[in-house]
Amino acid sequence: MPISKKKMSQASQISRSLSKQDELLNVQTQYFLKLNEIKLTRKERIKKVIYDPETKQFFGRTGTSWAKIGLFYFIFYGMLAALVAVCMWVFFQTLDPRIPKWQLDRSLIGTNPGLGFRPMPENNEESTLIWFQGSNKTSYTYWVDNILSFLDKYYVPSKIAKGNGQIKTCSHHDYPNIGEVCEVEVRHWEDCNRDQFFNYHKNSPCIFLKLNKIYGWTPEYYDDPFDLPQEMPESLKERIRKINNTRERQNVWLSCEGENPADVEYLGPVTYYPKDVQGFPGYYFPYLNSEGYLSPLMAVKFERPVSGIVINVECRAWARNIIYNRVERMGSVHFELLID
Q1: I need a surface site. Which of 44, 57, 178, 215 has the fewest CB within 10 A?
Q2: How far is it, in rounded angstroms, from Cα 284 to Cα 5?
Q3: What is this structure's pTM?
Q4: Domain map of the chain by residue range?
Q5: Helix, strand, coil in percent for the chain, rounding step 5
Q6: pLDDT digit string (tens) for 124-162?
Q7: Could you read off the pLDDT of 79-124 as tens digits, one per residue?
Q8: Taking the C-alpha atoms of 183, 186, 173 and 290 in order, what is their torsion angle to the nearest 10 degrees?
Q9: CA nearest 210: which of 87, 301, 315?
């Protein structure tokens, strides 16, 4: 028997009425629950958040719920840690502890070695002033101690080598073999030695210069006495021309001068140690991170600098593949001398 439209409409109205009553009942229930919570003290509410005895929930979760979520995160982070460990293991298999992955032009260091000097001023990385009074031991003690600290491994090379016989005395006619390194002979520094306080007590200070290490870098020498740069000091040119053997001219040459005409006059004569080579001999290159390797050093002694005046000094390394730029301090180093 077909249902009339009137009856269908009445049924729909009754359904909507029941739905509204349910909503009203739900609102009333929520109201009374909130009212009960309002009646709780703050301490009671905190306790209920931590553990609700009615629902047996701890921080809003039952024990089973906490166990499930704990197991999930344990497995998730365990797998994540395992993945990272495997990736790191694979990565480290591609590295060599002695050979850098990126070298020369592909490295951040590049292919242009800089010069470094010792002693360095105290607690001020931006300062390059070496200031002392030779007649006052307290005044020059810091500079002497700074040099001694730097040269410690040169006086006792066994501190960085394990004594496997890889350190040898080299020459321009006797280069090191694979696995060997050349000794830096401190006796060749002559006046610039620790027993003489590096001549600071005589107002004739010694400054030690070194070429910064770049793995695999090999210098291109100025070994042709008829093809020397125009700006090279005449005294250095003459020294190179006096060397007859081509191999003995294979050095990274070094020169130190006053930066300005007045500085040249105030600086006075300069002596380089070792005396036989005014620079860094070619048999120390290339640097291959071999055990026991020490960078070659030049000791530069300023014989009679004028006292009471700040003297600007520039030392420059000379090789065809060392780019020089005074403003950027490329291929050179700058410092000042002030002797009271």
Answers
A1: 178
A2: 108
A3: 0.73
A4: 17-60, 104-339
A5: 40, 20, 40
A6: 667 899 999 988 888 899 999 999 999 999 988 766 655
A7: 999 999 999 999 888 887 778 778 888 888 888 999 999 999 887 6
A8: 20
A9: 315
- Which residue, among 133, 312, 322, 152, has the nearest Cα to 229 in the 3D structure? 322
The amino acid present at 96, given as its one-letter code, is D
Give residue for tokens 């003459």.
Answer: 238
Q: How far apart are CA 82 and CA 74, in angstroms?
A: 12
Pairing label, strands 332-339, 129-132:
parallel
CA distance 174 to 36: 96
104-339 CATH pick, 2.40.37.10, 1.20.1250.20, 2.60.40.1660, 3.30.1390.20: 2.60.40.1660
Region of residue 88 (phi > 0: left; psi between -120 and 50: alpha; otherwise: beta) = alpha
Give whole-number Cα distances, 16 to 13, 25, 322, in Å: 5, 14, 92
Whether residue 317 contacts residue 337, with contact meaning beta carbons closer than 8 Å, is answered with no
Q: Which residue has the tokens 């600007």?
A: 312
Beta bridge partners of 339: 132
CA atoms of 322 and 10, how far apart (whole Å): 100
